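Is 2-phosphoglycolic acid placement plausible here? Inputs below.
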Amino acid sequence: MTRTKLLAGNWKMHKTPDETEAFVRRFLPLLFPRVDVEVALLPSFPSLDRTGRLLAGTAVSLGAQDLYSEPFGAFTGEVSAEMLRACGCRYVLVGHSERRALFREDDPLVNRKLKAALAGEIIPILCVGETLTERREKRTEERVLTQLAGALIGVHAESLSSLVVAYEPVWAIGTGEASSPEEAQAVVHRIREWFDALHSRTVANRVRLLYGGSVTPANADSFLREPDVDGALVGGASLVPESFARIVAACPKAA
Ligand code: PGA
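Reply from A.M.:
I modeled the complex. Tokens:
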């Protein structure tokens, strides 16, 4: 089963629309066409519409970093799946650890957001991962599977195959201390087994599992070579066109 690798750049709260446009104009010519790799840029909300127009007709996809769980209404400051879709978004992050920690998003809210994304025909990139304390207490698997189960309550089986799950150990995000490729492989393999046991082999084979947390041009290929790692969610190293393009180029060719 070949799964198209996904390399997604999570820009967090960086880059104005003008800076985003400058990035895109420099980045696109650096990419060599690859049918086995999909690249996605996830800029902040104000840059989405312009970036969507710039990326239209290119091989690079657009994604957002968050959405709200309701389709419309009196929710000052929030953004719906339909709005993201209208900007050209194919993906949206759900449950990133910064949202969970800084904005108190819990599993039930992540679950509602994930369903809102699916209802709006946007592919959720569900983020899961353990903190340093949980890792030290050897609770990584328990934590990750609890987040996974909580986020997917009531999600229809037919929606699961298109899902993307990003395993991002919280202690590895923005710290320069990536997980080891072996550890990342062990956790994502466990996630795939979970889909196999609770859903089906088909879903387990199709769902794409990414690693995220201090991925750089220097270490990307060691993660992307692991059999269950279907891509990477890249923060800091995706902010510079040459750096993100090197990560894309590091992606091993599909067998
Ligand atoms: P990082 O961020 O690559 O800067 O560690 C990853 C993320 O938060 O998605």
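Short version: The longest strand covers residues 5-10.
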